[in-house]
Amino acid sequence: MARRHPKKRREAEIQVSAFSDIAFLLIIFFILATTLVHVTGIVADMPSGENTKKEEEKKTATVSIVNDQILIDDKNVTIKELRKRLADMKLPAKSEEDKVVLLTASGHVTYQTYFDVMASISAAGGVTAILQEEE
Amino acid sequence: MKKKRRRRKMLLVSVASMGDIAFLLIIFFMVCSRFAKDPQVDFTAATTQTVVELDDYPMVVLIDKESQIYFQGDQIGDATQVENEVRRFIDENINENTSDQAREKMKTVTFRCDRSVGKHVFEPVIEAIAKGGGRIAAVGEPSKD
What CA–CA distance (Å, rounded) separates A100 from B117? Predict the structure, then answer.
């Protein structure tokens, strides 16, 4: 009887070369979808709208923006002067109620000016209370 | 004289480990990234002298250049809807067991507004957020001056 030849075992191979392609596609997706930029801005504490009228009755500082011009207690000021005036008020040392600064806007006012004023009030330690003009 | 032919060696670059590196990078990006809640809209941030780094707050309100209002990436009609959405979100996510820190975070709304938008659009929205019980984290960039 002829001697049996041992069968050659086939090596099972799984093709993994396409894996890296998939992986790199996923990387590209994540790179595009990721935001690495840190979001910056201001946190403005605001009393809810119902309380605004009460704040109005008290003698609090009022900042008005009329056609992108800033006024504090009816005096025209630049943004730098406003920051100085607010810093002089020493708002952080005051009680929560006295920290409130009323903010009104009328005429054509852009968000840029409004944001700058709101940021100045927050930076000075104040609480912004929006006073909407009646239509 | 007979010349010996030199056998050229085949240069093989092993790329087997490339897949491992790629997957490690994927894991890194998956862990580090967060999906943007803002739709891809035309938006230029306002600038000011002092800004702080803002946390990642769960509520996002956006007003684009065309004065369209978005809440959590979905376009909504007007300021009244913003107030309702903010109130609903706070009611659903804050209860008596919520810690003060988590409460503050849940109440804070990331507010993005294009710098050129007029008062008649953004002011009612800010007012609506405040009325809904929210606190505003207004997104802005530091000015150069």
Answer: 25
Mutate one of A25, A109, A112, A127 to test the B interface: name it (highest B CB count within 10 A). A112
Domain ranges of chain A: 49-131
Tell which CATH architecture fits domain A49-131.
Answer: 2-Layer Sandwich (3.30)
Task: Note whether B131 and A49 are within 8 A (CB).
Answer: yes
- Asked if B47 and A23 come within 8 Å (Cβ–Cβ), the reply is no
Q: Give this prediction's pTM.
A: 0.71
* Phi, psi for A46 (deg, rounded to 5): -135, 130
Contact B117, A110 (CB under 8 A): yes
Q: What secondary structure, in 3-state letters, does chain A show?
A: CCCCCCCCCCCCCCCCHHHHHHHHHHHHHHHHHCCCCCCEEEEECCCCHHHHHHHHHCCCCEEEEECCEEEECCEEECHHHHHHHHHHCCHHHCCCCCCEEEEEEECCCEHHHHHHHHHHHHHCCCEEEEECCCC
pLDDT one-digit tens code per residue, B29-54: 778 776 666 666 777 888 888 888 88
**What burial class does residue B23 get, using C-beta atoms within 10 Å of its C-beta: 0-12 exposed, 13-18 middle, 19+ buried?**
middle
